[in-house]
Amino acid sequence: MPVALVTGANRGIGAEIARQLAADHAFTVLAGARDPGRVEPRDGVVPVELDVSDPASVDRAAERVAADSGRLDVLVNNAAIGGSYTDSAADSDLGEAHEILETNLFGAWRLSQALLHLLREAADARIVNISSGAGQLEDMQGGYPAYRISKAGLNALTRILAAEEPAVSVNSVCPGWVRTDMGGSAAPRSVEEGADTAVWLATTPDPPSGGFLRDRRPIPW
Asked: For this structure, is 144 an active site residue?
């Protein structure tokens, strides 16, 4: 049975990705969350304590994956924080900006480093990075700079890992504006729609690598 680790899996898009992989694709899903008690109990979903901004927590989670499963086929880097959406680059709190980048970019980078040795051993390994259209350089605008920069950096990490790890499919996903705690109730997309492309990249035969996708189609960087 294939094994996936999904970060930020206690709510929103991460919880839906975990649910779909376990229920529809027969994965054992390790559902990473800072508070594993908040992961909804489901068949095939195993809560794992994981704070991607904490190196010690990442190390413990990686050791648990290796000890319990002995394998990893898919890593979904979904954990993210938004911060203040009213800031401009000129008046941003750089302390908060560091916190956002620590989770959204360095958290994914740190966890990928910790688990690449298992992914390299898998026959069909994938890394799916949950990014955002807010990180698209082609349409970069003002507003919430730390979040935008964190997602643009995550996209760069996707391209670098895809080039350096040819045996691993590595892609970024823009889920769109989704009704979650971060996206708000006015968002037009459901969590099922937001999770779809990530689940597809985790499960489709012969996936692309080094891409940025929304609705299963490439979009500009």
From this structure: no
List of E strands, the chain:
3-6, 28-33, 45-49, 74-77, 125-130, 168-173, 212-214, 217-218
Q: How far is CA 22 from the centre of its chain?
A: 17
Per-domain boundaries in the chain: 3-218
pLDDT in tens, 132-178: 999 999 989 999 999 999 999 999 999 999 999 999 999 999 997 66
CA-derived radius of gyration, the chain: 16
Which CATH superfamily hosts domain 3-218?
NAD(P)-binding Rossmann-like Domain (3.40.50.720)
- What distance in Å separates the CA atoms of residue 215 and residue 51, rounded to the nearest whole number? 28
Angle at 192 between CA 188 and CA 196, to 5 degrees: 105
Q: What does the alpha-carbon distance between residue 172 and residue 129 come to, in Å, rounded to a whole number?
A: 5
Residue in 53, 147, 148, 211 annotated catalytic: 147
